[in-house]
């Protein structure tokens, strides 16, 4: 383990100013490193962190890869409003990712990954609690809303309700009574499962608040705006980051740049198993007479998330496998809007909807990759998929511990880079 004086001497560049990069920078600064954050956008949290679903689902961490998913995916692909849309690319990375994803679609693998993500989720919950002293919850509209997963299929509902520790089992009538925003959807529901302790918050506001605290930290060296084009390396390790404006150098480097991490790691021969799962969110203002959800709601079959964040309703949905294409697909947006109006017709002012799309950097297993690489001074905090906000604080604390040579609080099997 390095001595404390050595930490104070080490300069770290964190590549990426989203929620994962910013939390990484904070925990590393707290650990004694001198930290600089490199971000290509003019404002932090402008990529996948900007308009995400806002749910902090520490206990609901179901990986996308599971038994039966491939058959469902085939059905979804032929539905205009289905949760999944696939467009073939002339890019081998798409097919390598899909093959690996299919290999993870087994019940035993899903259970193992879920158990690991639950450990990470609990660590993240505790780490967020620690951060409250520095970043007050009101700065980013944090609420302990609880989470309700509603089911339309009676068979799926009964199967989920039969699992040990599932949570509180509510009938369709109870779902509508306890969450009045679901009143119109009650005839369509078989029931729901509720868990307390799950939260909602504004991820972008969290990024802005944490960035402000970072600027005040004595170990923080500042933000650098620039486009990272590639990493440079020799036999000794990474020697710098080539920017559109020049060269940036430090003692060590942390890659936390969302899907851009894939091309940056490629530049030094590391093939990260990442693919950009494009997701959409809708945001609408809540009026005084609207019946917006107080509980965080997930529509299980449709894979649509509903969260009240401050005075706005946030709806997040869809997995589009279309490469790094951020354009809004009008048919997908229209289909999602119809579903939202049907499920919660009185929840917000839908005439004032704003639409956002983001690229969620996912691994085939849904588990992030945290820690060391074959290069002694290159570290990873990537691949969080749709749960970047949920796992950010826990991942950052694991990364800082790994860089200091500390023993992790639990086995990191399944959360590290496999060469």
UniProtKB/TrEMBL annotation:
Keyword field contains Transmembrane: yes
SUPFAM superfamilies: FAD-linked reductases, C-terminal domain, FAD/NAD(P)-binding domain
Gene Ontology terms, MF aspect: oxidoreductase activity
InterPro entries associated with the record: FAD-dep_OxRdtase, FAD/NAD-bd_sf
Signal sequence segment: none
Occurrences of domain FAD dependent oxidoreductase (ranges): 12-400
UniProtKB keywords: Membrane, Oxidoreductase, Transmembrane, Transmembrane helix
Database matches in Gene3D superfamilies: D-Amino Acid Oxidase, subunit A, domain 2, FAD/NAD(P)-binding domain
UniProt cross-references to Pfam families, sorted A to Z: DAO (PF01266)
The protein's Enzyme Commission number: 1.4.99.-
Enzyme class name: oxidoreductase
Keyword Hydrolase attached: no
Transmembrane stretches, start-end: 12-29
PANTHER family named in the record: D-AMINO ACID DEHYDROGENASE, SARCOSINE DEHYDROGENASE-RELATED
Family: Belongs to the DadA oxidoreductase family.
Name recorded for this polypeptide: D-amino acid dehydrogenase
Protein species of origin: Massilia hydrophila
Lineage: Bacteria, Pseudomonadati, Pseudomonadota, Betaproteobacteria, Burkholderiales
């Amino acid at each position: 383990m390095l001595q404390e004086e050595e930490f104070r001497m080490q300069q770290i560049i964190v590549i990426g100013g989203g929620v994962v990069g910013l939390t990484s920078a904070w925990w590393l600064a707290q650990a004694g490193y001198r930290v600089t954050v490199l971000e290509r956008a003019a404002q932090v949290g402008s990529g996948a962190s900007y308009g995400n679903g806002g749910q902090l689902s520490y206990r609901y961490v179901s990986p996308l890869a599971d038994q039966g998913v491939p058959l469902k995916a085939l059905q979804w692909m032929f539905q205009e409003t289905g949760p999944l849309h696939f467009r073939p690319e002339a890019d081998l990375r798409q097919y390598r990712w899909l093959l690996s994803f299919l290999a993870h679609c087994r019940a035993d693998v899903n259970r193992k990954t879920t158990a690991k993500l639950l450990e990470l989720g609990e660590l993240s919950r505790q780490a967020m609690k620690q951060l409250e002293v520095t970043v007050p919850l009101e700065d980013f509209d944090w609420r302990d809303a609880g989470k309700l997963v509603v089911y339309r299929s009676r068979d799926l509902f009964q199967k989920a309700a039969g699992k040990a520790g599932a949570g509180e089992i509510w009938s369709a009538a109870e779902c509508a009574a306890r969450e009045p925003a679901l009143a119109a959807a009650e005839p369509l529901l078989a029931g729901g499962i509720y868990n307390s302790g799950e939260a909602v918050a504004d991820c972008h506001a969290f990024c802005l608040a944490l960035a402000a605290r970072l600027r005040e930290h004595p170990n923080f060296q500042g933000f650098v705006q620039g486009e990272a084009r590639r990493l440079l390396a020799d036999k000794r390790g990474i020697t710098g980051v080539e920017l559109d404006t020049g060269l940036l150098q430090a003692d060590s480097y942390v890659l936390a740049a969302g899907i851009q991490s894939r091309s940056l790691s490629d530049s030094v021969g590391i093939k990260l198993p990442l693919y950009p799962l494009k997701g959409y969110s809708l945001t609408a203002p809540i009026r005084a007479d609207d019946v917006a959800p107080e509980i965080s709601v997930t529509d299980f079959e449709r894979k649509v998330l509903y969260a009240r964040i401050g005075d706005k309703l946030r709806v997040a949905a869809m997995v589009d496998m279309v490469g790094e294409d951020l354009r809004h697909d009008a048919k997908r947006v229209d289909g999602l809007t119809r579903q939202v109006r049907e499920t919660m017709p009185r929840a917000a002012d839908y005439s004032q909807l704003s639409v956002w799309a983001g690229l969620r950097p996912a691994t085939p297993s849904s588990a992030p990759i945290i820690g060391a690489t074959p290069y002694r001074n290159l570290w990873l905090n990537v691949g969080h998929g749709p749960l970047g906000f949920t796992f950010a604080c826990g991942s950052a604390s694991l990364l800082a511990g790994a860089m200091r040579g500390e023993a992790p609080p639990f086995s990191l099997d399944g959360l590290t880079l496999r060469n």
